[in-house]
Design goal:
alpha/beta; Quinone Oxidoreductase, Chain A, domain 1; Rossmann fold; 7-stranded mixed sheet; 12 helices; 29% helix
Length: 345
């Protein structure tokens, strides 16, 4: 079959790879019908050493079940399914607590011998724990929105949930990528009445307004912090959802959070060290939370709103490519010519 491999920074190729085969009775084979490129895929696209390649890539997909192991009971051949970006068994203590990204038997797509989502097919090692049957066909107009359940909608929602967003909280979202925009949508869904989106790409921030942002701040650094505080009577917001992962975004986060507030970080951190002292978190009694979203925990909760048209998170997709077009999809997203690329193998 054909699949996407990354050979190093800026070097993405589509090549022939071995067809996936069942290895455990808990597994399933899925023919991918829709996948996408994630903003977090751009991190290795920027920095991966050729010594670490070639490697499979991609962690968001919808597909049709082609075969299942003997122990699989929740899906069967012919089912259209969505998979979260981390695989998990669904039965360990962490999964039962809704923290599937810490599953003792789990892991992430495109690591080790596990397939990546940007290809023609995937072996799902723990089918009952991860594959969720969808009540539509592969040609449904809802597919782009349903695909966001694999990562970006669940991640934006996780940021808002961990931040404690409700109708009493004011919110700042840092980052106008797909996760940031869906954090806006999630904050709105949870009842926040004032949502400040910090982003400087007008096409994206316009979508953020459509999703529920009440204010947009294009400025960055100290100027951006001052603008948010001006919009909030000098106090900052109760919750900050940081959806970027770089140090300047974190610095903005503790610059705009209200005393006693919460910073929820879901942008994959690109640094191990970050200030937590008196001038950043300690002095203002700031709570720091977040982490990799257990997207599997949110699928059943978010799915009905997509099916009935209450929300349309698939609007974050502004480019569609076939498998041959994946390298150009990476280029376009890296150049900010595209927000998020949908892949139709």
């Amino acid at each position: 079959m054909r699949a996407t491999l990354i050979y190093g920074a800026g070097d993405v190729r589509v090549e022939q790879v071995p067809d996936p085969v069942l290895k455990q009775p808990t597994g399933a084979l899925v023919r991918v019908t829709a996948a996408c490129i994630c903003g977090s895929d751009l991190h290795p696209y920027h920095s991966m050493s050729p010594a670490d390649g070639p490697a499979r890539i991609g962690h968001e997909f919808i597909g049709v079940v082609e075969d299942t192991g003997s122990d699989v009971s929740t899906v069967q051949k012919g089912d259209l399914v969505v998979a979260p970006f981390a695989f998990s068994d669904g039965t360990c203590e962490y999964c039962r607590e809704g923290l599937q990204t810490s599953c003792v038997h789990g892991g992430f797509w495109a690591t080790g011998d596990v397939d990546g989502g940007q290809g023609e097919a995937v072996r799902a090692p723990l089918a009952d724990g991860i594959l969720v049957k969808l009540p539509v066909g592969p040609d449904s107009a809802l597919i782009p929105s349903l695909l966001t359940l694999s990562d970006v909608f669940g991640t934006g929602y996780h940021a808002a949930v961990r931040g404690g967003v409700d109708e009493r909280t004011t919110v700042t979202v840092i980052g106008d990528g797909a996760v940031g925009l869906l954090a806006v949508l999630s904050a709105k869904r949870l009842g926040a009445e004032q949502i400040v989106l910090m982003g400087r790409h007008k096409g994206r921030t316009d979508l953020g307004r459509e999703f529920g942002a009440t204010d947009v701040v294009a400025e960055r650094g100290e100027e951006g912090v001052a603008k948010v505080r001006e919009l909030t009577g000098g106090q900052g917001t109760h919750v900050v959802l940081e959806a970027v992962g770089h140090m300047p975004a974190y610095e903005q986060a503790y610059g705009v959070v209200r005393a006693g507030g919460t910073i929820s970080r879901v942008g994959v951190p690109q640094c191990e060290e970050a200030p937590i002292g008196f001038g950043s978190l300690f002095g203002g009694n700031i709570t720091l939370t977040g982490g990799p979203a257990p997207a599997r925990a949110y699928i059943e909760e978010l799915l009905p709103d997509i099916l009935d048209g209450t929300v349309e998170p698939g609007k974050v997709f502004d480019r569609t490519v076939d498998l041959d077009g994946v390298p150009d999809g990476y280029r376009a997203m890296d150049a900010r010519e595209a927000l998020k690329a949908l892949v139709t193998p």
